[in-house]
Design goal:
Structural class: mainly alpha
Strand order of the largest sheet: 1-2
Largest sheet: 2 strands, antiparallel
Order of helices and strands: HHHHHHEHHHHHHE
Number of helices: 12
Distance between the termini: 54 Å
Helix content: over 70%
Number of strands: 2
Amino acid sequence: MGGEVGAEERKGKQILELLKDPLSMILVQVLTTGMFLLSKAVLNKGHSVFAILTYRCIVGALFVLPFALYIERGKWKELNWMVVFWIFLNALMGITGAMGFYYYGLCDTNATYAASFLNLVPVLTFLFAVVVRLERLGFDSRGGRIKILGTILCVGGAMVISMYNGATIHITSPKWETNTVKKGFDASSNHKVRGTLFLIASCLCFSTWVIVQAKLLQRYPFKYCATMYTCVAASLQSAVLGLILNASRSKWILRWNLELLLVVYSGALNTGAVFCLISWVVPRKGPSYATMFNALSLILTTILEAVFMTGDFTVGR
């Protein structure tokens, strides 16, 4: 009897071990979907992109700080100039560049269109990882061939959703008030082209960031401290860029509305929790694994944006 119970416990632990990585990445995509929709609602009202990023990173650093102090106490002593360089680059690629370009692209397009470009991130990450030898093509293995097929499907999906709309299905539902004129996205091709370029730049930064994250954790394998320092560096970078672009005091004042909710939500969950989860999975599964789940956020964003924000759902999507 005791042997059977022990065997069941071991089996349960094995199943939990197998599910930890995919469940962590699914949680990342769910949290990311919420950030996409909140960001669109806030940015449509003309808030400063880099002010939001600055506050978001401050909240993220404060969220991770207790974990860094308790779990990785004293690890700051292992910092050196090379680690500081990778932390700076990690912040520049993963937050300041990736999210800065993404927010500007989101201002000119919509949440679903912007999320569709995340399908390109696994492709670029896989290619970059192969170049720096963190991944291998693996033509001779089943897993390698599946990765290549998945890469092709990711590119195809991004192209379909960005180039083809098809018939529009109208959904009657309560919508968030975002002060958006819907026809602006369809009619202003100049804005759409500009937004697309911003989103492509964001994808390049995201893909580079996953590689940089892996390199940083090789040199400094303390995910909580690395995440906290990255948030601090990104807040400084965003503050400098934000003040250069727009030093108006009104753009830097947080109000009790969706803007404050976005800062707290994205800072604590998307910057703090998501960075820790990705930092935990990347050393275990490789940089490509973390980006393989991006399509899930596209599916969720497409459905939820249609229900709560636009009321429209196209065949292409």
